[in-house]
Design a protein that fits this description.
With about 425 residues, this protein is of the alpha/beta class. Helix content is about 40%, strand content about 15%. The strands form three sheets. Strands 2-8-7-6-5-3-4 form a seven-stranded mixed β-sheet, with helices on both faces. A hairpin with a 2-residue loop joins strand 12 and strand 13.
């Protein structure tokens, strides 16, 4: 028990914000919400008791349904029966796409994805599509997409859409795209992991067919937990490709042959034993978000983004890839510097205590709603200010090292 209590204290200490380091990498893995940490530590302590199964396991296991109900509330009071518990966004997307691409109505059709969509989306669509479907990239290079981009594609049957692009932070306006897909019978699957918890739910959930989201980013829950929303109209048409005891209508009576009926709702897509302790923490994280107010948290994140953009726009030699229009961004700001590679910038930021990430050729910043933004922007400016322009002497020396063919024409002409 002493060891368990010591471990719990260490876990809590690790989760506290340190003044010397600022986590600006929520888009990779968010810092666990304190309530999530507290809940998981308490659950871990109980599970460490010799008689845990008789005393507390059933209570802790209720975290699965607690998580399902909390995320249903977050998704604009969706029905809990429309939600499948998954281990990650990638797991959820692969699970539902595997079922969708078996539909006769989409055979030999086109599957659309964003430019620079996450690797799991590209891998899942190409691997599952095989020779029966064609996968094409749609919209702008920054990840944004409009309904008119879809109108140009004949035989488009499935669209896998980033709510927010993980590289650029470009945010798609889901509502008009969903309306177009609904009108033209295009199955719409949304990768929601960079949006849910970071921006308001500003679209009619009933118009999309599926949405997958891991909890480890903007929901600030543990890794290995996530959700998959499946619209009832889609659920009636698809069947899970993998099933297990958790797929049953009555999973508690899995050893009774007479009770082995597959669930008719989204829970049919759950297979085996869940991450009980992780889902308990994920439920706590989502409940904390609901208590704080999703729109209030999203507003704070939007202010963070604006502060970053206002800081970077005045810096020479800095190019910002994140769009700056109303509703075009979320919690990610992506930029590059003309004289320093992204990896080097990330290293320099780490030296001054800022945790960022490189994505593509850019530095990606993604602080949580409660990040110390003034200190973060000051450190960012400090790093950029240390990048000195190349002196005239060094430039001249570099030019003299160039060797041109004897018949070359001077470029100054």
């Amino acid at each position: 028990m002493i060891l368990l209590e010591d471990s719990s204290r260490r876990l809590v200490a690790m989760s506290e914000v340190r003044t010397s380091s600022i986590h600006a990498n929520t888009a990779s893995v968010g810092q666990l919400h304190p309530y999530c940490v507290e809940t998981m530590c308490d659950g871990a302590t109980q599970l460490g008791r010799p008689n845990f199964y008789a005393e507390c396991y059933d209570q802790i296991a209720t975290g699965i349904e607690r998580f399902r109900n909390a995320t249903a509330r977050l998704l604009d009071d969706a029905s809990a029966k429309q939600l499948t518990v998954v281990s990650s966004t990638s797991d959820g997307l692969a699970c539902i796409l595997d079922a969708i691409l078996e539909l006769q109505e989409v055979t030999n059709g086109v599957i659309g994805i964003n430019h620079h969509s996450f690797a799991s989306v590209q891998l899942a669509t190409r691997q599952l599509a095989g020779s029966r479907h064609k996968v094409i990239k749609l919209g702008r290079l920054d990840g944004r997409l409009e309904p008119h981009d879809l109108a140009r594609i004949p035989n488009l049957r499935v669209l896998v859409l980033d709510w927010v692009n993980y590289r650029t932070g470009a945010r798609n306006k889901i509502q008009p795209i969903a309306e177009y897909c609904s009108e033209w019978n295009i199955i719409l699957v949304v990768d929601g992991v960079q949006g849910l918890g970071a921006v308001p739910l500003d679209f009619n959930l009933g118009l999309i067919d599926a949405l997958a989201c891991g909890c480890q980013k903007w929901l600030r829950g543990p890794e290995g937990t996530g959700l998959l929303y499946i619209n009832e109209s889609l659920r009636e048409r698809v069947q899970p490709r993998r099933v297990g005891y958790r797929s049953l209508l009555d999973p508690k009576n899995f050893d009774q042959p007479s009770h082995r009926t597959i669930s008719s709702d989204a829970r049919a897509f759950e297979v085996g034993t869940q991450n009980t302790l992780g889902l308990l923490g994920a439920a706590a994280a989502v409940e904390a978000l609901l208590k704080a107010g999703p729109n209030a948290v999203a507003n704070s994140i939007e202010k963070n983004t604006r502060q970053f953009l206002n800081t970077l726009v005045h810096e020479p030699d800095v190019s910002v890839q994140t769009p700056n229009g109303p509703g075009d961004s979320a919690g990610i700001v992506s930029f590059s510097h003309s004289r320093v590679q992204a990896d080097e910038l990330v290293r320099r930021l780490r030296k001054v205590g800022v945790v960022a990430a490189r994505r593509g050729r850019c530095v990606r910043l993604s602080p949580a709603s409660d990040a110390p933004m003034d200190a973060l922007c000051e450190r960012l400016k400090e790093v950029i200010s240390t990048i000195r322009p190349q002196s005239g002497l060094r430039r001249a020396t570099s030019m003299r090292k160039l060797r041109l063919p004897t018949n070359a024409v001077a470029s100054s002409r």
